[in-house]
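Memo to structure team: turn this sequence into C-alpha coordinates by end of day. - J.P.
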Amino acid sequence: MEESPLKKLREEMGMSQEDFARRIGTSARTISRWETGDSVPSFTIAQMKALETLLLEHGKVLKDLPDSFAAG
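Reply from structure team:
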Protein backbone atom coordinates (compact mmCIF):
# COMPACT_ATOMS: atom_id res chain seq x y z
CA MET A 1 0.00 0.00 0.00
CA GLU A 2 1.20 3.48 -0.85
CA GLU A 3 1.97 5.95 1.93
CA SER A 4 -0.72 8.43 2.91
CA PRO A 5 -0.44 11.86 1.23
CA LEU A 6 -1.23 13.41 4.62
CA LYS A 7 1.65 11.53 6.21
CA LYS A 8 3.98 12.69 3.44
CA LEU A 9 2.83 16.29 3.90
CA ARG A 10 3.15 16.11 7.68
CA GLU A 11 6.64 14.63 7.45
CA GLU A 12 7.70 17.26 4.87
CA MET A 13 6.76 19.84 7.48
CA GLY A 14 8.81 17.96 10.10
CA MET A 15 5.83 17.38 12.36
CA SER A 16 4.71 14.45 14.46
CA GLN A 17 1.06 13.38 14.40
CA GLU A 18 0.68 15.00 17.81
CA ASP A 19 2.22 18.32 16.68
CA PHE A 20 0.12 18.41 13.53
CA ALA A 21 -3.04 17.55 15.43
CA ARG A 22 -2.42 20.20 18.06
CA ARG A 23 -1.89 22.87 15.40
CA ILE A 24 -5.18 22.14 13.65
CA GLY A 25 -7.24 21.41 16.74
CA THR A 26 -7.75 17.66 16.70
CA SER A 27 -6.17 14.57 18.26
CA ALA A 28 -3.16 12.53 17.18
CA ARG A 29 -5.49 9.50 17.08
CA THR A 30 -7.66 11.31 14.53
CA ILE A 31 -4.62 12.12 12.38
CA SER A 32 -3.61 8.46 12.56
CA ARG A 33 -7.08 7.35 11.44
CA TRP A 34 -6.99 9.83 8.55
CA GLU A 35 -3.58 8.60 7.45
CA THR A 36 -4.61 4.95 7.50
CA GLY A 37 -7.93 5.59 5.81
CA ASP A 38 -9.90 4.36 8.82
CA SER A 39 -11.71 7.70 8.95
CA VAL A 40 -12.61 10.34 6.37
CA PRO A 41 -11.39 13.80 7.38
CA SER A 42 -13.91 16.45 8.27
CA PHE A 43 -12.95 19.91 9.44
CA THR A 44 -14.61 22.71 11.33
CA ILE A 45 -14.14 26.22 9.97
CA ALA A 46 -11.66 26.93 12.79
CA GLN A 47 -9.68 23.80 11.85
CA MET A 48 -9.62 24.83 8.19
CA LYS A 49 -8.27 28.24 9.16
CA ALA A 50 -5.61 26.63 11.35
CA LEU A 51 -4.68 24.23 8.54
CA GLU A 52 -4.42 27.09 6.08
CA THR A 53 -2.15 29.02 8.47
CA LEU A 54 0.04 25.94 8.98
CA LEU A 55 0.31 25.35 5.24
CA LEU A 56 1.21 28.98 4.56
CA GLU A 57 3.99 28.78 7.14
CA HIS A 58 5.46 25.98 5.03
CA GLY A 59 5.00 27.66 1.65
CA LYS A 60 1.90 25.71 0.71
CA VAL A 61 -1.75 26.53 0.08
CA LEU A 62 -4.97 24.53 0.39
CA LYS A 63 -4.93 23.79 -3.34
CA ASP A 64 -1.67 21.87 -2.78
CA LEU A 65 -3.55 19.28 -0.72
CA PRO A 66 -4.56 16.00 -2.35
CA ASP A 67 -8.25 15.15 -2.76
CA SER A 68 -7.78 12.29 -0.29
CA PHE A 69 -5.49 11.90 2.71
CA ALA A 70 -5.85 8.12 2.90
CA ALA A 71 -3.09 5.71 1.90
CA GLY A 72 -3.54 4.40 -1.62
